[in-house]
Amino acid sequence: MELQADSGVQEAQSILPVANRKYKDTIFRMLFSDKKNLLSLYNALNGKNYSDCDQLEIVTLENAIYMSMKNDLAFILDLALFLWEHQSTYNPNIPLRDLMYIAKEYEKYIKEKGISLYSNRQQKIPAPQFIVFYNGNRKIGERMEHRLSDAYETSNGEPALELKVLVININEGYNQKLMESCQILKEYAQYVSKVRTYKKTLKLNEAVEKAVEECIQEGILREFFLKHRAEVVAMSIFEYDREWEEEILRKEEFEAGKELGEQLGKEKERKNTEKERRRADNAERELLLLKEKLALMEGK
What we know:
This protein is an alpha/beta fold. Helices cover about 55% and strands about 10% of the residues. It contains nine helices and six strands, in the order ααααβββαβββαααα. A six-stranded mixed beta sheet has the order 1-2-3-4-6-5. The longest helix is centred in the C-terminal third of the chain and has 78 residues. The chain is elongated and about 110 Å long.
């Protein structure tokens, strides 16, 4: 994908509301911030059949951003607190990020419920569940798990603090049962697939426009696109432009790391060569001294 620094991207960024540019919103978050869609995905994941959206309480912390750390969706249902995030780039550091985020969520929950942590009774809080919906280019299986303990410098038996994040691959062709149970998620995957297919041969803004138009014609997220078309186009351009930049950054970091490794290898080889040379010189000097001693002894 080519980085678009032309008028298409500039125009798209000018369309995007200031708040969205600041928060770096995504189509996924926009879709599932709708309680009806969110409940549909929850039912599909958990084999439930809830129909009352009022049972679902969205508690996403809109201002909880630290060094671009954010959470896409947080909600309470079934006495549990769910933290869901969409990612188009692979990131194994999500458990640590979620740990920091869930602490903020519990802080807010305790304050709102008037819970005293100094009470002699056990205080109850909603159990957490962490999910990442992944649709990046890196090949992973249908599901995988990241653990906070994977980041620990040392590992001695059962970790005293653990946090598990379930990663669900939502690229088209994966997790078919889940897709069939949640039509919105299935159609979102189809839209993403179209954008990625078209951006191989078209400029990014053209690829997004074509994907949106084709989705409308085929009934894929039709009502959503008709209602939010300008915002969706602008948001998608921003999102995929950023995805491309992150891919380039990772490649540059890989190349820089590779170059540094080669330099360190050469330096190590040079030091080893010098060490061997000094060792050889010392051995030669010791041999000469030994010969001199033998000559002196023979002279006596």
